[in-house]
């Protein structure tokens, strides 16, 4: 199970939102590139970057920063936030991003999701974000009346082998991951899932590690790294 450091961007700066709310923003006194280099030095094998401006506005807004991060480390970088057109996906991949995350557009335009999986394969990954098991879109500001399990199964039918799942209620709260929900999803859908949200301690990583046999392939860690409640090296060893 990979432990994946997150770098969230607003105006090119490293930030973190609480439960995805833009009025609950935490700012960290570290540049995105310095953060990336730090996490790589500590053993990270993959970096998870979210363009929060892009997620809100519907088009990539911090692509230059993401590309700079990609050039600064020798590990893959995945980038999400505002990717709703194939030309933007192609541009990010051409700029050095290893994998593009698609979220809102995949949920609202099923044909787009299918065609992206067909064209880009593993260079795209779908992110499904939910609050109280209800899928959310547009920077987590709009809910959808669609069953969470149904949408996961649909993406699998298109060929998706791995997806990111975020429990928004947990995101940035350091309250522990949604192990019960993840276990339920993994037991009902034949797919690998990367968990995001809630991790504060190495014990939380160990909890998630127990779900690896069911298909949990990764855990994204954000705020806990920046506030020092978890040591990345120790977390990676536990994963």
What does this structure look like?
The radius of gyration is 16 Å and the shape is globular. It has an eight-stranded parallel β-barrel, surrounded by seven helices. The chain has one domain: TIM Barrel (Alpha-Beta Barrel). The chain is α/β, with parallel strands linked by helices. Helix 1 packs parallel to helix 3. Helices cover 38% and strands 28% of the residues. The mean pLDDT is 90.
Number of strands: 12
What letter string, H or E per element, gives the SSE order? Answer: EEEHEHHEHEHHEEEHEHEHEHH
Which class best fits the helix and strand makeup?
A: alpha/beta
Strand percentage lies at 25-35%
Range of helix content: 25-40%
State the fourth-level CATH superfamily.
Aldolase class I
CATH architecture: Alpha-Beta Barrel
What would the CATH topology be?
A: TIM Barrel
- Total discrete domains: 1
| Mean pLDDT across all amino acids | 90
Shape: globular
User: Could you give the distance between the termini?
Assistant: 5 Å
Radius of gyration: 16 Å
Strand order in space, largest sheet: 1-4-5-6-7-10-11-12
Q: How many DSSP H or I helices?
A: 11
Largest sheet: 8 strands, parallel, barrel
CATH class designation: Alpha Beta
The stretches of 5 or more residues where confidence is low (pLDDT under 50) are none
